[in-house]
Amino acid sequence: MKRSQALCYLRQLCCSGLGKELVIGEFLRTLPSLVPSVSNVFSGVNEHLRPTYCITDFDGSDMAGTMVEVVSSFYNPERLSRAVSWLKAHPAITSPLILDEHFYSTDMYNVVYSRFDMHHVLWMPTLCVGKPNGILRLYRPKTHKPFDRNDQVLVSQLLPYLTHALRAVNDDRPSYNKEATSGMIIMNAHGRLLFMSPEAKKLLNLAYSPTLTEHHDSEKDVLMARLAQLCRDLKVIYRGQNAAPPNYRHVGANGQFLFRAYWLDQENSDAEGLVGLTIEHREPLKLKVLRCMQQIPLSPTQKDVAMLLSQGVSFEQIGQRLNIKPTTVKDHVGKIYTKLDIHQRDEVLPRLLALAS
């Protein structure tokens, strides 16, 4: 994705009305297209800049508990006081040495940063009524050049949009994409986890929590207990007794997840049999459409119009929402139809989704 496209996409994403966890996760994954970086993180913070939750663009589920413990230990009052003082006079923190001159000898660096190839930093706060409510944290490996002034300027252009995403009222009943990504988990009939595919591991991490908090492991335990119950329900049904159907639909910040349990070996459907659990993940349709629109040469306003067309919004309502004249709406619609090579609004959504295949 070109830098200009990435900048436009990130702004639209933050104004989409999607849940903040979903927006921030997608934001972090897309940001390297604009500002080269790796292992980026967004931290919600309290009034003292102490992290209250973290959302990452990398899979840290294997050491989530350790990360939470190390991060919590690192941000002691002295280091937080240094960060607060620095940010009162500067727009960004560009070196962790500002917080601790021995940073590269700390557990934070050796346990967390080294694991995820973090070395150079660019930390910039999001502000709500003039006070920080989050920190956007960008990283680069030691072998790369540090972040410079141009990087700061690019990121600063996005911070007000990120703040908007944090405060937006989210859609409580989103539509979901029909296509799904899937994975496989193998458990025994008692619900003990035996194996999961790489895809399943990723999807589980998306399902039980998109954030790292002190409650992260407990949220995982709740979901895994629910999946174990599916295995036991399957066993009860096999014995001819009543139980709930062995499927579970979970709706979280990252979309809709459908779990189904079935015997892997019908001839051994007993207490020692193996149970397969499929996971199907469907993300919100709005996010899918936003991504697809980056592949066609639409102006920012035309992308807004195309998004509303795909949601079935009338021409009159589009004009009201975007504060443009009816004639301007019709002009944009005509250009969108031409660029998509379609002739009516019912074709907009199918054509956009076809771009992803």
From TrEMBL:
It comes from the Bacteria. Signal peptide: none annotated. CDD domains: LuxR_C_like. Gene3D superfamilies: Winged helix-like DNA-binding domain superfamily/Winged helix DNA-binding domain. This is HTH luxR-type domain-containing protein. Residues 291-356 form the HTH luxR-type domain. It comes from Methylomonas albis. PANTHER family: DNA-BINDING TRANSCRIPTIONAL ACTIVATOR DEVR_DOSR (PTHR44688). Keywords: DNA-binding, Transcription, Transcription regulation. It holds the Pfam family GerE. InterPro entries: Sig_transdc_resp-reg_C-effctor (IPR016032), Tscrpt_reg_LuxR_C (IPR000792), WH-like_DNA-bd_sf (IPR036388).
